[in-house]
Amino acid sequence: MTIENFIFLLYILVLASYVGFELISKVPPTLHTPLMSASNAISGITIVGAILCVREGEASKYLGMIALVLATINVVGGYAVTDRMLQMFKKKKA
Amino acid sequence: MNILIQLTYLASAILFIVGIKKLNRTQEARQGNTFSAVAMLLAVLATLVQVQLLTLPEILICVVLGGAIGIYWSRKVEMTQMPEMVAIFNGFGGAASLFVALSDYWTRAVEQPEQTTEIVTIVSILLSVLIGGVTFTGSLTAYGKLSGKVSGQAIVFKGQHLFNLILLLAIIACGAVVVLETGSVTAMLVLAAIALVLGILVVIPIGGADMPVVISLLNSYSGMAACTTGFVLNNSVLIVTGALVGASGIILTQIMCKAMNRSLVSVLLGGFGATSGGG
Prior knowledge:
By secondary structure, chain A is mainly α. Chain A is built from four helices and no strands. The model of chain A has no long low-confidence stretch (mean pLDDT 89).
């Protein structure tokens, strides 16, 4: 990684963090848990890293496969649970 | 092809932002969740193209296995046990970042030691292992407390904070060894082990009533762990999305604290004599 590349990635980090700070505002208390659950599913983005690690190699490949299974559980389970929560929420409203 | 991958990552980042924004509003929340799920799917598909489908069988096996477990658990869980389920899923996310970092480290230290490793990369690996490890066992401890498998009482012992400090110093020492000599596998494994112990120790002194706040904070950590793996793998979508979750998670944690009339500091120092059984 060149120094220019690193600084470019730092820009991305700073700007994305700022957007993250601004995104959450005046969330109604009923949405706290679903929002937490949804952002938990989003943090499963590490699944991308896991896919990149399942490549030619010995131990590194198996470590990548473990990561991929765990990340997939996080992503799939996370979105499914959030949807269930929000579904219940909608019924209550109606 | 590379440009197409990058553009898909960009589309995915935009969808994540819109999705989180929609999750702030009652009427649009479910749509927001769908938006972010589509964003995740796009990111995964773009990454599959990037690895040129070389290891597709292995990837498929892992995704089918993980997907089946995820669906099964999310169907089976009772509505009242949702926060526990989120804690477990979050722990797995943290563990995934830990394993991604270890996998990349293994390639550099053992399988291709002739390859030069920049200091930025090695520090990012160390941070991923540390944050991912703490998130993993911390979340599992939070799950244990919520489900009653571990006592919901604040568990404190004498010299706890001193012990945590010593562990932190040991982590820094191991990290320094790995930075100086990339091939020090033992130091890396010791660091991973200490991170796992530390995860238990930071959550165990916090009372059961405060667990939702803790899970929200650990969720923010798992975002940061994903973000640091982005620096390891030089991948922009990991950095953007990890930073989004890391930052918004902190704000959500603060909001949840306020709703429960607690300050974040008093939650984190739960065993330190602050009000107990508050929330």
